[in-house]
Amino acid sequence: MMRPNLPSIRRTALTAALLAIAWLGGVGGALAAPISDLLDLPAAVNARAVRSLQLAVARAGDRLVAVGEHGTVLLSDDHGRNWRQARRVPVSVALTDVHFPTAQLGWAVGHSGVVLHSADGGETWARQLDGKLAAQIVVEDARKRAGESEGGDLDAGNREAAARRLREAEGLVADGPDKPFLGVHFADESRGWVVGAYGLALATKDGGKSWTSLMGTIPNPRGKHLYQVRGDANALLVAGEQGALFRSTDGGSAFSALATPYAGTWFGALRTRSDTLLAFGLRGNAWRSADGGASWERIDAGQPVTIAAGRTLADDSIILGDASGRLLRSTDGGRSLVALTVAPTSGLTGLVQAADGALILSGPRGLTRIEPELLVAEVKK
């Protein structure tokens, strides 16, 4: 593992969190194969792919793109009514997140540190990065920082921190490509960020042609797992385990840690158009901050079920989805949540609003479309 002395509870926590949000028990067959084989094995065409485990869904212009187990990528050009497989995906590892900043250009991330890029709206994909290369990038950055600390004016504590990061980075190389990326976000066709297990975090300024490590930039010395990165051109939010929530207000050049009232896992965070922050995660935890993270108030989610995904919709309302498939909507900036009348799906891993206003849910049995008129039919929890 990345840290030889890492307590087994950290590994168990990662596994439990992934099971909770991504139903990774369904990916067991793929994970049983050697990592190197899956990185070089193109995703198979499968007639049942549309009913397979999907871990994330995104908009690519008017098109919808979903990613999931065994390297499956699904496309819809009718707002989620019908789906088909992408023509070419070069890997068979589980893909955990996807984002398209434009209708044509998109990126997906997944297990074994893989980053894929599409330049044709998701039809075909090419591998830009894997765990081996990611580990080399991290260790080169750590060596540079360790060298600068030895020759600079840093105190003993900071020098030891730099040395520790170098040891951990060297552990990444020794482990091989076994660390998953769990989140991806691109501000535009050039600038993007990927985050994952054990604090793995990289950034690009040239559309993925080259990458730099953020592990010395994000103040995450314990290497907490990072599950999501979201934002816009300048403001970014990174959510992770053990209450970890980080923010950048300068396009990712610097990050600061936000003090949060919950010490468990955040699976995501979002910023509304009124600059309100909303974080959500395990056991129904949903919290709101109207002052940039200085103070927080809890939002009643109705039941202690993991909240796996959230989005701000076109009408500025907020939708959260939990692991049971239940959907919660807020029309008051996150102050309160009301359950939709829509019957829960068999689970939920991600959601996005289609161009026609429908809500598209990803989950263990594929994709579900919720008609626009059902998003306003609410009942009390």
3D architecture notes:
This protein is α+β, with helices and mostly antiparallel strands. The protein has one domain (8-130, 177-375): YVTN repeat-like/Quinoprotein amine dehydrogenase (Methylamine Dehydrogenase, Chain H), CATH 2.130.10. 18% of the residues lie in helices and 31% in strands. A four-stranded antiparallel beta sheet has the order 1-2-3-4, with no helix packed on it. A hairpin with a 4-residue loop joins strand 6 (106-110) and strand 7 (115-118). Mean pLDDT is 87; it is low at 1-9 and 19-32. Keywords: Photosynthesis, Photosystem II.
In short:
InterPro entries: PSII_CF48-like_dom, WD40/YVTN_repeat-like_dom_sf. This protein is an alpha+beta fold.
Tell me the strand order in the biggest sheet: 1-2-3-4
CATH superfamily: YVTN repeat-like/Quinoprotein amine dehydrogenase
Tell me the count of domains. Answer: 1
Shape: globular
CA distance, first residue to last residue? 43 Å
InterPro entries: PSII_CF48-like_dom (IPR028203), WD40/YVTN_repeat-like_dom_sf (IPR015943)
Protein name: Photosynthesis system II assembly factor Ycf48/Hcf136-like domain-containing protein
Keywords: Photosynthesis, Photosystem II
Domain Photosynthesis system II assembly factor Ycf48/Hcf136-like: 182-285
Itemize the secondary structure elements and their pairings.
Elements: H1 8-22, H2 28-32, H3 35-40, E1 54-60, E2 63-68, E3 73-76, E4 84-85, E5 95-99, E6 106-110, E7 115-118, E8 126-129, H4 131-151, H5 156-175, E9 181-186, E10 192-196, E11 201-204, E12 212-213, E13 226-231, E14 236-240, E15 245-248, E16 256-257, E17 266-271, E18 277-281, E19 286-289, E20 297-298, E21 307-312, E22 318-322, E23 327-330, E24 338-339, E25 350-353, E26 359-363, E27 366-370
Antiparallel strand pairs: 1-2, 2-3, 3-4, 5-6, 6-7, 7-8, 9-10, 10-11, 11-12, 13-14, 14-15, 15-16, 17-18, 18-19, 19-20, 21-22, 22-23, 23-24, 25-26, 26-27
Helix pairs in contact: 4-5
